[in-house]
Amino acid sequence: MATRPTTVTIAGFVLRTARESVPLTQAAMAEALGVDLATVQGWESGRRPVAHMRAVDLLGLRRRLAGLGADAAVVGMLDAAMDADRITSATLTGSDGPHPLAEWVHTRDTAHMLAWALTGTRPPSLAGIPSPRRRGPAAASPLLPAADRAAFFEQLRTTAEAAPRTDPQGVLLHRQALYLTSYDKTPEAVAWTAQALHARRGLLARRGWTPQWAEARSTATALARLGDPVPLLDFIERAVVDDDAGEAANLNYWAYWLGGTPLPQSDDLFMRDRQLTGWDPVTLLRGLTYGLHDAPGYVDLYAHTMWALLTAHPWLPQASGMLVRDLAERTGHLLDGGGISERSRRELSHVNYVLRDRT
Predict the structure, then answer these.
(1) How far is Cα 17 from Cα 100, in angstroms, rounded to an integer?
(2) pLDDT for 296-342, tens place per residue?
(3) Which burial class, exposed, middle or buried, applies to 282 when counting CB atoms under 10 A from its CB (0-12, 13-18, 19+)?
């Protein structure tokens, strides 16, 4: 049954974090923006959702925050936070109209905002920003109340089961909702999600690009999140390696996921672009370098993607000396450790050799 959340405050919390990065009190922020104190308090608490502002006012707010010296990484998260608010609100309230998860392919930033609200895990992009000391019982994260989190996941499972898989939007809704259920780590939820994902393992047996490629990738990565990396390793071997369309889809998806594509995508068709247009290779290289996830399965996907990116764009090591040095160091650490497949070791060795040859 749909319920009404206590508050939806992810964007409000991000705004508060931006204010505190200056640092400013709420009263000083209100004065600097030319609004009353109650307005700033309403934005941050969720009583006056930031997403309800007029577009021109929201644009002005971003620019004023930058002018006041707010951390750019925090200000840059406002859009993703508002996306996450839409997803949590639509799921909890069961509002009429298309579900946001059926409207666009969400990005890593949106996923990180959702994880912050659902698990309390701080986004890696904000890890270097210190949390200021606060007086009173101020929340340390936008973590939703336990009752709201339980209701969100229950409704999300219902949404995933009910999503029609006869059209692109229904397929998108199903796979994105099912992936997000893997954020629920309660034993019953893990069992439900694992069963639902394993029911789709037939997708992983298909080789190369198919119309179900994105769904198979989502299934494999969600199973890796639950502690089973084998399906993801199989997916890399069957649906990506040595298949031009699969390799292109993998690079196109990573570029979008890491924010290298300027426009939101309403379905998965953008992954089929074999010309690799519409995204910046340097942005993807930077995202892969500093977003490396060394969990089993994930690290192999990173390794192959890095190898494929440098193979498609061999000039990349000349683009940024500092970036190349950082990547060479990170790949060296991975090679010195364990937990990667033989293919990943070969590919990382090649990447590391090319990078060190350029530094």
Answers:
(1) 25
(2) 778 999 999 999 999 999 999 888 788 889 999 999 988 888 788 89
(3) middle
Orientation angle between helical segments 187-198 and 168-181, nearest 10 degrees = 140
Q: Which amino acid is at 232?
A: L
**Token output for 53:** 């502002």
User: Does the reported pTM lie above 0.85?
Assistant: yes
* H, E, C per residue of the chain: CCCCCCCCCHHHHHHHHHHHCCCCCHHHHHHHHCCCHHHHHHHHHCCCCHHHCCHHHHHHHHHHHHHHCCCHHHHCCHHHHHHHHHHHHHHHHCCCCCCHHHCCCCCHHHHHHHHHHHHCCCCHHHCCCCCCCCCCCCCCCCCCCHHHHHHHHHHHHHHHHHCCCCCHHHHHHHHHHHHHHCCCCCHHHHHHHHHHHHCCHHHHHCCCCCCCHHHHHHHHHHHHHCCCCHHHHHHHHHHHCCCHHHHHHHHHHHHHHCCCCCCCCCCCHHHHCCCCCCCCHHHHHHHHHHCCCCCCCHHHHHHHHHHHHHHHCCCHHHCCHHHHHHHHHHHHHHHHCCCCCHHHHHHHHHHHHHHHHHC
